[in-house]
Amino acid sequence: MAIRPEGIYVDGTAGGAGHSKEIVRRLETGRLIALDKDPDAVAVATQRLSPYPQAQVVQSDFSQMGEVLDQLGIPLVDGVLLDLGVSSFQLDNPERGFSYAHDAPLDMRMSKSGMRAWDVVNTYPFEELCRVFREYGEEKFASSIAKQILRARQNRPVETTGELVELIRAGIPAAARREGGHPAKRVFQAIRIEVNGELDSLSRALDQAFDRLRPGGRLAVITFQSLEDRMVKQRFAALCKGCICPPDFPVCVCGRKPRGKLISRKPVEPSPEELAANSRSKSAKLRVIERCEEVGEKQ
Q: pLDDT digit string (tens) for 222-238?
C-alpha cells in the first residue's frame, strides 16, 4: 500500500484489527479509519487500536465507505484495504454459525442483524436454494443438496450447522465427498454470501474506494474465492483500460485514458513461509491498483 506517515487510510474490513494495527503503526501525523459492520469486531478493534490516537473505528459496511468519509469531512484518502469474506475473528466464534467445523445455530450474519442462514435454509424454495448454491458456491450437486434440505424441513426446521452439514453430505455422492476438502465448504460459502449480500456490497465498495483515492493512492483487495477475485480482476482491468477505439482506427479519437495502473499484473499469493504460519491464507489472492488520473478527470 506504500503507506506514507502523513497519509489517510481506510481499512474497510477491520475484523480483529490485525491489518489496521500494521497500517496505523506506520503513521505519524496520518489517520486511519477502520470500518466493520460486525458490532463484536468493532468492540475488539476499538480496544486493540486504543493505544493509537491516529485510529478511528466506525461500525459500517464497507459499501457505505463514501458516506462515512463524508461524515468525517474526508474527501480523498491515500489508500484503502479490503480483506474479503468471513474473518478469523468470526470463524473463531463458533456460536456465530460461520464454521462447518462446529455445531451452532444457523446464523452467519456479519452485522448480527437481518436475515439469517436459518431463513435461507428453511424458507427458500427449491429453485432459489439451487440458484444460491450454484451461483455463490459453484456447487455442482446443488439440486440434490436442495432436495435433501426440502425433505428434512418437511418434518421440522433445520436448526443447526451440524444438521445442515449432514444434509449436504447426504446430497453429495460418496466419491465426490472424498475430493476437494470438506463437502460443506461450498454450500456454507454460498449461504453466507446470500445472507450478507457480499457480492453487491463488494461491487459498491470497489467503486467508492477507487473514487475516493487521491492520485497515487492505492486500493488493495484480498480475496479468498473465485467469485470475489473475478469481480476484482475485471473491475481493475476496466479501470486500467485506455483507448477503446476500433483497432483499425489510425489514431485515437475517443480520448479515453486509463484511470489506474496495476501494481502487479498477477495477484500476490502467500509464500511457503506464510502458509506454514497461517493455513487460512491458502486461497488468498492480493490485487492492488493505483489511481493515476487527476481527481475530476473521470470519463
A: 999 999 999 999 999 99
